[in-house]
UniProtKB/TrEMBL annotation:
Domain of life: Bacteria
Protein name: Pilus assembly protein TadG-related protein
InterPro entries per record: Tad_N (IPR028087), VWF_A (IPR002035), vWFA_dom_sf (IPR036465)
Record Pfam families: Tad (PF13400)
Domain VWFA intervals: 141-447
């Protein structure tokens, strides 16, 4: 009886028994904390991966049908799988893709194995994340001044340019959060630019119909050529649509010569100092009776528009021919970005909430403009035109942001200086040196994404 009584009253082993009974719950709590920490870490990894994928693919145009949507899903899945794997090596699952005007969203999930919670028969945990890329709410007006000279026919440059330019149009069009939020124009240039030879342009009061290409001959062949003014001989019925550089006649400051800028009165209010003055013929745009050699098929200028399909058709119709005059491309891009006639499709420069962008692409050195002739050697001509291009670029930067692209050949220093920025480091963000024409699409995608100012949203 004493033995039983002592056994009943003995308490020295209770702690061990109690600990044994509590061990499973303690391990479950500690294990759950470890597993949930791992889950949080994996959710962060998956979120980072998804953010990268959204930003990488945000330039993709909106899917027009099920086939394009399925193709986009395949691309998203591959990119995400390449960027993230669970600890067990499993790929995540894309659960939803939303591609709307101005935004691109992806939702994804993954399943990870537990380590400690298995004792409670919880073998896996799910992770769900989402990411959205959205564009800024500002509107954009973009003009592409594109070299259409004969050298663009080599090294597949024109083919790759067409592909890149059309892809950029798709990217920018997809970012339009409302109708009119994105406008795009095109200035194909050689030594001249062209406009349609319709009645509207033949009657335009901003065009001066007076220029003729005049040549001297030796042994029955053209020897040297230059341009002369003969308004009394000009026949509009024979005009091919080519227009040359404006006059260099604003004398108080060479920066304001009409051939290098859209401004005609720098002292006037911003809304009224652009364009031309019918009372002053030196401000008008001089048409030439016959286009410079090979430029009669130069694609006509397309003013700012929201007709993105028409823009892509115009790009497809570009034909490389003629010599190089970067100045006229930059100046006409200014004219398109202006709100004043001859092209008034844009808003006034400096309008709040509207970005004005110029993209200048060329593959060669300046070789000819209206003011050079064959008596100049090639170096003299290039230096003369380079000086005008430099002034044109300075003036272009007053409109907005200037991106420049050199394709294999061309004056690197001139084009880099033409780009937005004051230091070499800043200019390098806006100047691209393309050494292989196949790089053009990637370069234009980068410019488009910079224009769109992509940011991660909630």
């Amino acid at each position: 009886m004493d033995f039983l009584r002592r056994f009943r009253d003995e308490t020295s082993g209770n702690i061990l028994i109690m600990f044994a009974l509590m061990l499973l719950p303690i391990l479950s709590v500690v294990g759950a904390a470890v597993d949930y920490t791992v889950k949080a870490q994996e959710a962060t990894r998956l979120q980072t991966a998804l953010d990268n994928v959204v930003l990488a693919l945000a330039h993709e145009p909106m899917a027009k049908d099920d086939a394009e949507l399925n193709a986009l899903k395949v691309k998203v899945n591959k990119f995400l799988s390449d960027n993230y794997k669970t600890p067990s090596g499993a790929s995540p699952t894309v659960t939803k893709i939303t591609r709307e005007r101005g935004s691109f969203s992806i939702e994804a999930s993954a399943t990870i194995d537990t380590s400690f919670m298995k004792v409670a028969d919880i073998k896996t945990m799910d992770i769900s994340v989402s990411s959205t890329a959205v564009w800024g709410s500002s509107k954009v007006e973009v003009v592409m001044a594109l070299d259409n000279t004969g050298s663009m026919a080599s090294s597949n440059k024109m083919t790759e340019l067409k592909k890149a330019a059309k892809n950029m149009i798709d990217i920018l069009a997809a970012s339009a959060y409302e109708d009119g939020a994105v406008k795009i124009g095109i200035v194909p240039f050689a030594t001249s630019v062209r406009v349609p030879t319709t009645t509207t342009y033949k009657a335009a009061d901003w065009i001066r119909f007076d220029q003729f290409r005049v040549c001297s001959y030796r042994n029955g062949r053209e020897d040297k050529c230059w341009f002369e003014s003969h308004p009394d001989k000009f026949k509009k019925s024979n005009w091919q649509g080519c227009i040359l550089d404006r006059d260099q006649s604003y004398q108080s400051d060479s920066n304001y010569a009409y051939d290098v800028m859209d401004i005609i009165n720098p002292t006037a209010a911003a809304a009224s100092h652009h364009g031309y003055d019918t009372a002053d013929t030196t401000t008008l745009y001089p048409a030439v009776q016959s286009c410079p050699p090979s430029e009669s098929a130069l694609k006509t200028v397309v003013p700012l528009t929201t007709d993105f399909a028409g823009l892509k058709t115009a790009i497809d119709e570009m034909t490389p021919a003629g010599n190089t005059n970067v100045t006229i491309g930059v100046v006409w891009a200014q004219a398109l970005l202006s709100s004043a006639k001859p092209f008034d499709q844009g808003v006034p420069p400096g309008t709040e909430g509207v970005q004005k962008i110029m993209i200048v692409l060329t593959d060669g050195e300046n070789t000819r403009n209206r003011f050079t002739d064959d008596n100049d050697d090639s170096n003299e001509k290039a230096e003369k035109i380079d000086a005008r291009t430099k002034l044109a670029c300075q003036n272009a930067k007053t409109f907005g942001t200037v991106f420049t692209v050199r394709v294999i050949d061309g004056n690197q220093g001139l084009l880099k200086d033409c780009a937005t920025g004051t230091t070499d480091a800043e200019k390098s963000q806006y100047y691209s040196n393309v050494t292989n024409s196949a790089q053009l699409t990637k370069v234009f995608q980068g410019i488009a994404n910079e224009i769109n100012k992509l940011r991660l949203g909630s």
